[in-house]
Amino acid sequence: MADQKGSFSWLQSLNISDIFVWKDHGEYGAVAAIVIGILVPILFSALFLGKKREKIRGVPVEVGGEAGYAVRNARKTELVEVPWEGAPTMAHLFQQACKKYTHNRFLGRRKLIEKEFVQSGDGSGRRYEKLHLGKYEWETYGEVFARVSNFASGLLKLGHNTDSRVAIFADTCAEWLIALQGCFRQNVTVVTIYASLGEDALIHSLNETEVSTLICDSSQLKKLDAIRSKLTSIENIIYFEDDSKQDTFSGEDASNWTIASFSEVEKLGKESPVELSMPSKNSIAVIMYTSGSTGLPKGVMITHGNIVATTAAVMPVIPNLGSHDVYLAYLPLAHVFEMAAESVMLAAGVAIGYGSPLTLTDTSSKIKEGTKGDASVLKPTLLTAVPAIIDRIRDGVLKKVGKKGGLVKKLFHFAYNRRLAAVKGSFLGAWGLEKLVWDTIVFKQIRTALGGQLRFMLCGGAPLSGDSQHFINICMGAPIGQGYGLTETFAGAAFSEWDDYSVGRVGPPLPCGYIKLVSWEEGGYLTTDKPMPRGEIVVGGFSVTAGYFKNPEKTEEVFKVDEKGMRWFYTGDIGQFHPDGCLEIIDRKKDIVKLQHGEYISLGKVEAALSSCDYVDNIMVHADPFHNYSVALVVASHQPLKKWAEQAGISYNDFPDLCNKPETVTEVMQSISKVAKAAKLNKSEIPAKIKLLPDPWTPESGLVTAALKIKREQLKNKFKEDLQKLYA
User: N or C: which terminal CB in the chain sees fewer CB atoms within 10 Å?
Assistant: First the structure.
C-alpha cells in the first residue's frame, strides 16, 4: 500500500462501506418514525406553505477585456486582495497569524505507538503494515513560528542559494507546511511535486525548474538514488525523519550532494540565525505542477499575492471560522486545493491535525484493529474532500443500510426522504423538531465515522453530483461549500455559500475576482442565450497566476491582460449564470466532438451522467468524427457486478473473466441505457458499445489525475486496440 501514498488513489482499495457501524434502535426507532411521520406533518402543515425568497449572490458588472457577461460577488463592490492590512504576502500573513494566535493549538500529529506487519489471508504471501496510533500531540502557533524561523535560517546555512529553487516531494505532514513557510521567509520559490509522481515526470519537474535543494520523505531516498544520474541541478537533500529505519545513499553515490535530516537543518538555523529576506506580493511563491489530463505536467507560477487573495476571499465564506475549529488535513499539499485550504486555516487561527488517507477512519487499511482512525480521534469540525471521496462515502452508507434490511432500512429511507424534502425546500417544518429527532435516532451513527463534530465540508477538484451533495447535507449534517477553481487561479474562482442547498452549481464568484462568460459560437454557447447567459468561463482578478513556467506560448494562449491591467485566465470550461448570480459548469470545450452526421457530443457531460450507474466505477466515453455513434471504456464496479452474477446464476473464474462474458456486457449496457434515459441524454449521446475493464484507474498508472479526473489521451493510447475493436 505504500505506493499509494500522496494521492487520492487510496480510494480504489478502501471499502468505505466498512467504516459505518449501524446500531439498530429497535422499538423506540419505530415509535419515533410513526410519531414524526404522521403527527409532525399535521401539526406543522400550516408552516409548509410559502416560497422562499431567492437570495442574490452575484451581480452583473462592467469589466474590461473581451466582451462578455461578467459577474462579481454581491457582498463586495471592490475586489478583495488581502485579509487585513499589512499582509501582502504569505510570509507576512503567517508571521502575523502566529503572533495573533501565539498560544493556540496549530499543528497536530499522532504519536506512533506500534507498527506491525500482518500476512494477507489470500495465500499470496503479501504483508501489510498496520499502525497503532495514539492521541494527537500539538504545537502552538508560537512554537511552529520558531521552527519555521529556524528552518529558514538552516536552509541557507546548509548551502542553499536563494537565487535557486527548493522542491518538496513528500506526503502531507506538519513538516511539509513548516518547510513551505520557511522558504517563504527567505523569498525562496518552492516547487511542489506529488509524492506519487512517476520517475519521468519527477525528473522533468526537477530539471525544468533547476531545483538545487530537494525536501522529501525518507522513504523517497531510494527513488532519488535510482535516478540521481538524470538530475542535473540537485545539490542538497533534506529528508523528513520517521519512525522506521530507511536506507540512505552510500557515501560514494552521494559525494556531490549534501544530505541532512529536517531536524538537523532546524538545529543549524537555531544556532546560526540568518537575516530575513521577505518577499513582495509579486514574488513567485510556488511553481505548482498540475496533474493535467494531457502530456507532461505544466508548472504554474503562483505569486504570494495570488495565495493571499484566495485566502482572504474564502475566509468569510466559511461560517464562523475561527480558533474554535479543528481541520483534518490529509489530501496532498502539492495540490492547489489542499494548499489553499491550509492557508485559509492558518490565517483564521484554526488547529490543523494531520492524518493520512490510509489511517483516516477506524477501518482504514493501515489502522490496526482496535485502534481509532484519525477522524475519530481528532473529531474535526472542518474537512476537505474531492467528489470521488464523497461518492464512495454515499455508496458505502447505502450498502451498509441495504445489508441491515428490515426496520433499519425502512427507517433510514423514510428519515432520509423527509430530510431531503426539507433540504430541497418543499416544506419548512422538518428543519425544527423533526430534524433534531432524525439526527438523533438515525444519522448520529453515520456521523461518528468522521468524528461526529463536522460542521462544514469543502469540496473541489471535480464536479460533485447532486445526489452526493444532498447525502452529505443530510447524513453528515454539514453544508458543503463546493468550489470551482484551477491551479491557474490558485483555486480562487467560485465558491458556493453555506446556506445554498441547491445542487449542480458552484456558487457566485469569490470576492477576489470576477467571472466572465465569453460566447463560443462554434459550440453554440452564447452570452445572449435564454433563460441564462452561457459561454466559456474566464476568470479575472487577484487570484489569476503569472502563467506557465518556461512556456510563454501556452501562457499567451490562455492568459490575457486587459486595457485596465487586469489579468484574465481562459479556462476552457463552459458555464452558465443563474439569475441569483451563481455559476454552473455545463461543458468543456475540449470534450466536445462532432460525429459523422453532424451531432455534437459533450464527452464530459455524458460521463458525468453515466457515472451514477451502479455498475460503473469509472468511465471514458470516446467519439470518433468518422462514425455516427460513441463508445465507452467502463471500469466495472466489483461488488454490484458480483452480486448480479450471483443472483443471475453466472459462473466465472475471476473478475476479469466475469467482465468478458457477453451476458455481463449486456447487463451493464442495459443499466447504462436506463441511467442515460433518466438523465435525458439524446440517442447519439448514449454509447452504442462498451468495453468492460476489471482493474481500477489510479494516479500511479497515469490514467487519472491526483484528483481522479480521467486523462483522456493516456487512456486512448493505452486502450487503443480495444477502442478500434469497438468501432469494428
Answer: C
